[in-house]
Amino acid sequence: MSPALTLGVAVVLPIVGALIILALGKWPNARDAAGIITAGVLFALVLRLVEPIRAGLRPEYPVLEVLPGVSLSLKLEPLGLVFALVASFLWIVTALYSVGYMRGHHEKNQTRFFAFFALAISGAMGVAFAGNLFTLFAFYEAITLCTFPLVTHHGTPEAKRAGRVYLGILLSTSIGFQLLAIIWTWQLAGTLDFRDGGILAGTASNGVLSVLLILFVFGAGKAAVMPFHRWLPAAMVAPTPVSALLHAVAVVKVGVFTILKVSVYVFGVDLLGTLASTMWLAWVAATTIILGSLVAFTKDNLKARLAYSTISQLSYIVLGALLANEMGIIGGGMHIAMHAFGKITLFFAAGAVLVCAHEKDISRMHGLGRTMPITFGAFFVGALSIIGVPPAGGAWSKWFLGMGTLEAGQVGLLVVLMVSSLLSLVYLLEVPVRAFFSAPPEDAHRGDGIHEAPWPVLVAMVITAVATLALFLYPGPLYELMNMVVN
Amino acid sequence: MTAHLPVLQVIIPLLAAPLCALARRGRIAWGIALATSWTTFWIAIQLLARVRSEGPISYALGGWAAPVGIEYRIDLLSAFVLVIVTGIGAVVTPYALKSVEREIEAAKIPLFYAAFVLCLTGLLGITVTGDVFNVFVFLEISSLSAYALIGLGQDRRALTAAFQYLIMGSIGATFIVIGIGMMYVMTGSLNMADLSVLLAELGPNRTIVVAFGFLTVGISLKLALFPLHLWLPNAYTYAPSTVTAFIAATATKVAVYMLLRFFFTIFGVVFSFDVMQLDRVLLPLALIAIVTMSLVAIFQTNVKRMLAYSSVAQIGYMILGISLASVTGLTGGILHLFNHALIKGSLFMAMGCVMYRVGSVEIDAMRGLGKKMPWTMAAFVAGGLSLIGVPLTVGFISKWYLILGALERGWWPVAALILAASLMAVVYIWRVVEVAYFQEGPGEDSSIVEAPLALLIPTWVLVFANFYFGIDATFTTEVAGAAARSLMGLVP
Lengths: 487, 492
Known about the structure:
The structure holds two protein chains of two kinds.
Chain A: H1 3-23, H2 28-47, H3 50-54, E1 60-67, E2 70-75, H4 78-104, H5 110-128, H6 133-151, H7 157-189, H8 206-219, H9 231-234, H10 240-267, H11 269-274, H12 276-298, H13 302-322, H14 326-357, H15 368-371, H16 373-387, H17 394-407, H18 411-437, H19 455-473, H20 476-486
Antiparallel strand pairs in A: 1-2
Chain B: H1 5-22, H2 26-54, E1 57-60, E2 71-74, H3 76-103, H4 109-128, H5 132-151, H6 157-187, H7 192-202, H8 206-222, H9 231-238, H10 241-266, H11 269-275, H12 278-298, H13 303-323, H14 327-358, H15 369-372, H16 374-388, H17 394-408, H18 412-438, H19 453-471, H20 474-487
Helix pairs in contact in B: 1-2, 1-4, 2-3, 2-4, 3-4, 3-10, 3-14, 3-19, 4-5, 4-10, 5-6, 5-10, 6-8, 6-9, 8-10, 9-10, 9-13, 10-13, 10-14, 12-13, 12-18, 13-14, 13-18, 14-16, 14-17, 14-19, 14-20, 16-18, 16-19, 17-18, 17-19
């Protein structure tokens, strides 16, 4: 199979997987096995794309022309490959985890759940390999729509409300800002292709392009830059695997990925550095970083705290893109992977606590570490990565982001990064510290029923935690890929 | 034979009408209507293919050459509209069989199909003819039969709705005939091509200006341009399901075609837009229609009425494209003519399925239908997504061109309004989705099951078309673009 064709297959494969899952709905074991196998095959496919990229190839797969000059087409480039690798690998792990979680938690409508899950992954692959803005937008919207049934999975009034916020914010930003920006770009540049060095340079005045950049950054509502972040905490009503893979990895990373991609391949780093609104937006991202961390402090519900932590961390990547220098882009791209592994571990652990101890609130997790040591151990590792200290992978991306701020001459932004890391140190480590070092509360009616999580859950958690550590020791391949983006 | 296709396009349904009326049994009448609608669709496709390869077709009726005789003239725009109208007819007629048997008493069914085929005749006649008085005649044929069709609705309010439409429609038709009369007085011609030459020589004479005014108001009434849309919501709400789907997808489209024909072909772009500054009237009205009618749609409790208000808003999009008076804008308007027919056709047909099983299209009646009628509601959601303008649906294609047209003129607030109205569409479509999927139906009513295939298949054919022409829009954009260029007086 040629690399170009592989791109197409990678997008279609999860859709086929979804159909198989629907067909096997009556046999849960076969269905879940089909899900895991699809995920495994997908990762293997994406892995095969590493070689062509290293060889300097940029294969394209034109699907069809929708309008004259506007086509659906896929194109392989290093940034997209990083995202696709992360999303497809973590899908395997999440598929495994979901089996344990959904059964342990006795969720209903599991077939529908797994089918839409696979469709959302197909959307993520489409975004990762999009060859132009139109293709990216089409898959971006597809993801929003495919994840709506996942967010509202429980069908409760609360889920319905959350679904409204979710769809409301994501569609308003994408249709209201992003689509406008895309059509405007088309009108200015006459093309929507992603090209090295960008397509917008010299097409309009600095003022117009500045406005366009603002539209793009806020239009990627999935990046949850404040004030368009409310959908992410709302989406936490979904079952935990959705929060873990989609709302810590696939969906939210699609948002920041869009911003990175637009910065590098539509505006171009050089042009970006000269725009009036770039630094202004960088400070909006910085504000999101700090405020997200501060709000995370106030949340006692573990998933809500993690959601705000995600909001804060996503803006690291947005900030990296807007620094408009090599270090910033490299740091931002690496943070896509680093944050993904760290945050998914945290969510896996949160879900395990929910399934086994039926606890959602941090204040009620005293002493749980003694019965669930692996869960909270994994949580600890994930937290280290988010904070950005060795021996976890997050240390590297934060290092490059810090370098980027200095290169841009913005010491203020460096201070923001430092302060936020300190804040996350406190709000994240509080959880394992309570679990390991405090005695259980007296009113807790905990029988002896609490035990470690089911084995698929544990295996998934351990894999991501180990990967987090491994990324600290071997960041080389990731750095190499990101270096190809800027050079 | 092929030389006579332009006239056969009209004659066949015209002759089929009395045959339907004579048929004693509903099914026979339906068979005749089905054969007619499929034949006309086939003819329309042939005509479009011929126009695309050989250029406009001129057909002298009875061998009398224009301007003395009546000329049927089919250019790219009319051929495109013919395909839309007959295509919708060809999909709606199979759907009609079961839906009509459920909603209309058996004795009236043959007459129903007679009126249906007559309505088709009128709409096609308006589109093929190159003679302005002929336009008026066919307009009356289509309108009178439409009043009858709407009046056949189950609800007694259908009668008042039809009466309301009759009054408003007659005023509109009168205005049009007055305008045509004035043009005839000044030029002595009724042939469109002839008129356009004579009017250009005459210049902006006061009588012509008044005729222009009468025609603007008359046609606007027919196409339900805000604020002349008052007849539309009731008519769409209380008409039988089949009629709503057919009329919503065709009648207003043909009225928009009339607008294009009169203002671009007969009066010419220069007179209409530079001298009369038509865009200054149409643009604000279109924008008001888009925003206010979308807003009104959000607060409706009857889903058909909601879709009716949405239609008025969508007509605003078409008029907006026209009022941009540029090739891109006009392309967007003409594209939306086609695309909106597919969108509203599929949505109203899905509602017809609900009507068939549940007997009501109030929003409360939708509770739990997501589980009980999964295919029907899936069709509604898919049509809704197209209405919203999600990429890879036809709604997206129209919006693309309209926004591009607005940006070309530098009117970015207009572009923003178009997008804002799409978001309002999300709200009103999602109200139905939430009720259908998140609320449990009242008790276990085992009679509510999935609609029969006879209804579902035609509905899904249109849904499929929504995606097909949204994924590969090269054909529609090419035809609409070429039609727009020729209307603007540029070489296509």
